[in-house]
Specification:
The protein is an alpha/beta fold. Helix content is 49%, strand content 13%. The chain has 16 helices and 10 strands. It has helices at 14-25, 34-42, 49-66, 73-90, 100-118, 162-172, 186-192, 201-214, 230-241, 257-263, 267-274, 278-291, 293-306, 311-317, 349-356, 383-401; strands spanning 2-3, 7-8, 124-130, 133-140, 148-152, 177-180, 223-228, 247-251, 333-339, 362-368. β7 (223-228), α9 and β8 (247-251) form a beta-alpha-beta unit. α2 runs antiparallel to α3. The longest helix is centred in the first third of the chain and has 19 residues, at 100-118. The termini are far apart.
């Protein structure tokens, strides 16, 4: 639909438009149906989080009911995949303290597991001990001669959504894939309150140690670490420390989180932050957040997942989330894929990657164009174009390593 002055968009609000496009884009992996998405969108009032929740949750329930109706197993299983994704979408803009967040996440995760079972997709579910908590991972076996893809999300994804980002595409091509979470994400955040860590080599080490014990065929397997969005930066940080990683790829990730966050602020906000005027900065942040659901969500989600107690504190804490301190220790193959019209990642980050990753075995950057429909953050709505770039690169570095 076309809004005057806003081009072809699903909503005038950038936050609602992007998240709706993200959900609809998962149709390529049976995670959505465009007709269902458009009907849900038609029931939503722009920037109204409650109507967003109600509309998407209703379609999650509808798809879950379809899974127990008459029909073949493939159709019922795919309805559960859609239910999982619609439930995930519905909780997105709810406040962190809303009890529906945990309940709806459990509905999403439960639907996903039942989908794997109904579709008879070979898999193992690992609940890995991690600092008195449990770190969830899904292992989808594949051709042992192919590299193992280790995938995780970023600032807001769930481990189940990774099936739509990469897990399904990996299965289609015969790649083994582990989709996992870490502190600050998904099950660990919602069930245990675990906050993000910039030392992503810690959850990666726990995951790899466990995976190589439970699935010995993975010990000698070449390993590709894929981080989505904020996960791109975390993937590079982890690859710098754990040399079991043969290659690291980032989908839509920033080089320095603090710089990316400051770039989203008006000039006066950056000025107040640099002067350390936390009171005025927090007041300005609250005013901006009250007028824009995207800013409000980013602030609330950051304080929740990173563990900050104010907008100023959040920006301070993001200073640890940067590739810079470990850049010279990154010696594996690296791929960075970005969108031409990414509304979250500064275009200047490309120069920072090229300038700092001088010791990478190989470095490749790929820009996907808005004119081709792939210019959004993380190629939302056009993931197949990312897959073409990613798997071509994976095949290439694999051939060189043989």
């Amino acid at each position: 639909m076309r809004h005057p002055g806003f081009g072809t968009r699903l909503f005038r609000s950038q936050a609602f438009h992007y998240q709706a496009l993200r959900t609809m884009g998962h149709s390529a992996a049976s995670g959505a149906n465009p007709g269902e998405c458009l009907e849900a969108i038609g029931r939503i009032r722009d920037e109204d989080a409650e109507s967003w929740y109600t509309a998407w949750h209703a379609f999650g329930e509808r798809c879950e009911k379809l899974s127990v109706a008459e029909g073949d197993a493939v159709s019922r299983g795919k309805s559960l995949l859609r239910a999982s994704n619609y439930y995930r979408t519905s909780e997105f803009f709810l406040p962190p303290g809303d009890p529906r967040r945990l309940h709806t996440y459990r509905q999403s995760a439960g639907s996903f597991v039942r989908a794997l079972q109904t579709l008879k997709i070979p898999h193992k579910i690992w609940k890995i001990p991690y600092e008195r908590m449990s770190m969830l991972a899904y292992y989808l076996p594949g051709d042992e001669a192919r590299p193992l893809i280790l995938a995780f999300g970023g600032y807001d994804s769930t481990v189940e959504e990774l099936f739509f980002w990469i897990g399904h595409a990996a299965r289609q091509r015969g790649y083994p894939c582990i989709m996992f979470e870490g502190p600050g994400q998904s099950n660990m955040l919602r069930e245990y309150g675990a906050r993000f860590t910039h030392e992503w080599e810690k959850p990666l080490k726990v995951l790899l140690d466990y995976a190589e014990w439970e699935a010995p065929e993975l010990v000698k397997c070449r390993k590709v670490l894929l981080g989505v969005s904020m996960g791109a930066m975390l993937a590079l940080r982890a690859a710098a420390r754990d040399k079991r990683v043969d290659a690291a790829a980032g989908l839509g990730g920033f080089f320095n989180m603090q710089q990316a966050a400051l770039a989203q602020l008006p000039g006066i906000g950056r000025w107040l932050f640099r002067l350390g005027l936390s009171g005025l900065f927090n007041r300005l942040a609250q005013i901006k957040a009250s007028r824009d659901i995207g800013r409000r969500w980013a602030l609330d989600n950051g304080c929740w997942s990173i563990g900050a107690d104010s907008a100023f504190d959040l920006i301070v804490r993001t200073g640890d989330y940067t590739v810079a301190p470990v850049a010279q220790d990154i010696t594996c193959d690296v791929l960075i894929v970005r969108g031409e019209r990414d509304h979250l990642i500064p275009s200047s980050d490309s120069a920072q990657y090229r300038k700092n990753l001088t010791r990478a075995r190989t470095y490749k950057e790929h820009l996907l164009r808005a004119a081709d429909g792939a210019g959004e953050h993380c190629q939302a709505g056009a993931l197949e174009q990312f897959h073409q770039v990613f798997f071509d690169w994976t095949e290439g570095f694999s051939a060189r390593r043989l």
